[in-house]
Amino acid sequence: MPWDRNQMAARAARELKDGFYVNLGIGIPTLVAGNIPPGMEVTLQSENGILGLGPYPTDNEVDADLINAGKETITEIAGSSYFSSADSFAMIRGGHIDLSVLGAMEVAENGDIANWMVPGKMVKGMGGAMDLVAGVRRIVVLMEHVSKDGSSKFRKKCTLPLTGTNVVDMVITDLAVFARDGRKGPFKLIELAPGVTAEQVKASTEAHYVEA
Amino acid sequence: MPWDRNQMAARAARELKDGFYVNLGIGIPTLVAGNIPPGMEVTLQSENGILGLGPYPTDNEVDADLINAGKETITEIAGSSYFSSADSFAMIRGGHIDLSVLGAMEVAENGDIANWMVPGKMVKGMGGAMDLVAGVRRIVVLMEHVSKDGSSKFRKKCTLPLTGTNVVDMVITDLAVFARDGRKGPFKLIELAPGVTAEQVKASTEAHYVEA
Amino acid sequence: MAKKLHDGAKQALAGLLFDGMTIAAGGFGLCGIPETLILAIRDSGVKNLTVISNNAGVDDWGLGLLLRTRQVKKMISSYVGENKEFERQFLAKELELEFNPQGTLAERLRAGGAGIAGFYTRTGVGTVVAEGKDTKVFNGETYILETGLVADLAIVKAWRGDSFGNLLYRKTARNFNPMVATCSRNTVAEIEELVPSIDANLVHTPSIYVRRMIKAASNEKRIEKRITRKEA
Amino acid sequence: MAKKLHDGAKQALAGLLFDGMTIAAGGFGLCGIPETLILAIRDSGVKNLTVISNNAGVDDWGLGLLLRTRQVKKMISSYVGENKEFERQFLAKELELEFNPQGTLAERLRAGGAGIAGFYTRTGVGTVVAEGKDTKVFNGETYILETGLVADLAIVKAWRGDSFGNLLYRKTARNFNPMVATCSRNTVAEIEELVPSIDANLVHTPSIYVRRMIKAASNEKRIEKRITRKEA
């Protein structure tokens, strides 16, 4: 049975290590926060200028001056700090964030990613996505294995405008996990969702990858 | 009678305007601080990271964490702020400082300045001098008219390694004041020290300039 | 010294507005936006504006107000998804749009304020963002050249300010405000609270960057996505 | 989380030192220098160092201690006038020296920490500093290309730190420390005071930049030019 969204996020959470500084994208990646193993200290950054994100506020705690990059109300925790957008992206671009979990529309077998625009649809903008994929040390993508029309989202080449080239280290879908080291060589199928077979994955994946 | 050092500094102080942010170099330029007209508010910056320099401290006020760019103990005043060296030079390089008064070994008739090294002598380094002449909106040089060997310090060309090219707006010596607008065209002799004649200035100046 | 604190937004903007000008505005979404100054710019009727701001407000608040009145010719932003009027004008080609990656936009504003004419970043390499831009290889990696941005007028929102013009921002309402404050010779700040002094060691924006200042008349601080959890 | 606070300088530097490495150090003159860590680096005997620091200490304090023991191969600085042993080694060609304008040095450290490979500045145009460097014209003015600096180890001095590694500096002892803290993956901070917490809104260096931390054992804070005025 394929992983559901929370199970996908839980699988991504297994990539975290104690002491990591992590940026989580909007959508499914935000579910990773709820799956950090107890006892592990992971500090979340949001690119609008906070290190040390706490949970959503209670009604009494809501503060219009305290939001995340998804513009949702949040809270601070012990050890938090605030900084400007320039300082925030200095942190991101300078390789100080250990890992980012992002959603995607497409990932290519060479590590390219497309997650910011669909030609013909209204373009909302890339926000911080291009900076994150270019700057964070390790990029984990969380996405459905196939799109609504059934086509593979892990592809030979991206068809949509790129967010970054050769930047993806791991792809976690509802069916399987693909990974590679040092952004070199092909991705390798390293894990299957329970009950999903390697053949099923093969059949629904356009990208070339190495079998486990 | 030529101006003495304090009179030169007082002449430089007449270039200040209410509300100016000013950086004063080491040496004679520091005397400008004592010559700011009463009632005029001028904020002094020091490039090691303070805006709003106060006077030297009393014995009780001495604080090792509070020095100016000349490494002298200083004080803060109402409205002061501290910042990093990067932020300090962003302020300087970005053209936010209205005026700087600097010493010089040589100034050329095209506005070049040399004030950081003498070949053959030990080189101490340029410190912030190159950043100041490149970034501050208006550069006023305070220097003796002639060097100890009697040669003109306001020259056709600088002979010493340059600090900056075409950056000087005004030269104040013990004999006279030369100025030009917009860093274009020749300097003009605009003022003589009391009792000093235009002929005397002419005789001891190598640089071409326009007579008053 | 010429007093920095002015009685109102109209007075603080007097002489600083002209048609066709470039205005940089602080804020992220509706958080930390100079609400009062935006309203005054709308009321001034100044037009053909190029506006540099990470976002473009919503239909009826923030910079969306200037879009509605058709005062904006061009936006330089990273994300504009929250504004239907924006979409309409853009699709009708009534509005120019230049997308910058958010970090590139923040750094371009800092560079403009810091006298850095251009800088090399990996952000956007191999994407549409790189089109037409110079590239250079450093240590085997390709970087693209981005340029500094300056504005004819910068408007920022701060939490606290003193009479000298030193500013403090609050929490994530800081965002783009500190760089925007540096990118113009004409920076006007609106502050929520005027305080007698700010600890010199803790100032966010030094007074040198603030030319004029007002007490904010509008502090609505709308929340775009109010998400809460139950009390424990 | 692995505890950032270590018992002493030796422990905090364990595994981070190797011959031929590059070390960036905060401080301006003798103000805000990581005294304790410099002493520990001296005692470690590590050699052939390239040291990035605005100044080189004095003969018997600060980085001058590492010059005296001949542990330094090269200095990258803006001003080194206070050190006779430095002069002797330099004139005897025992020591390499790269001068950077002070603002360029500060910006190169920030750029290195911020993933900016290079930037264009007017500083040094037409001087020896420009020799061998790329230039580019922006808006009719010539700028020179300077590159980002990174270090194998960064050492900084802070006033206060919390257990997370957030830092506060004091007055002009801040100087180069904030950029130096960002320019390495291995930043060790020595703090004068350990505090339970620092207001999140007022942190100078966020915890992410501090890998290890110690309480400073040496806080001499020598004054180079003690100038005083008479009591009023």
Structure in words:
The complex is a heterotetramer, with two copies of chain A (212 residues) and two copies of chain C (232 residues). Chain A has 212 residues and is α/β, with parallel strands linked by helices. Chain A has helices at 5-13, 85-93, 129-135, 198-203, and strands at residues 21-24, 43-46, 50-53, 76-82, 99-103, 106-108, 113-114, 139-142, 154-155, 170-172, 176-179, 188-192. In chain A, helix 2 (85-93) packs parallel to helix 3 (129-135). The mean pLDDT of chain A is 96. By secondary structure, chain C is of the alpha/beta class. Chain C is built from six helices and eleven strands. In chain C, the strands form two sheets. In chain C, strands 1, 2, 3, 4, 8, 9, 10 and 11 form an eight-stranded mixed β-sheet that branches. In chain C, strands 5-7-6 form a three-stranded antiparallel β-sheet. Chain C is globular. The termini of chain C are far apart. At the B-D interface, helix 2 and helix 3 of B face helix 4, helix 5 and helix 6 of D.
Quick recap:
The complex is a heterotetramer, with 2 copies of chain A (212 residues) and 2 copies of chain C (232 residues). Chain A has helices at 5-13, 85-93, 129-135, 198-203; strands spanning 21-24, 43-46, 50-53, 76-82, 99-103, 106-108, 113-114, 139-142, 154-155, 170-172, 176-179, 188-192. By secondary structure, chain A is an alpha/beta fold.
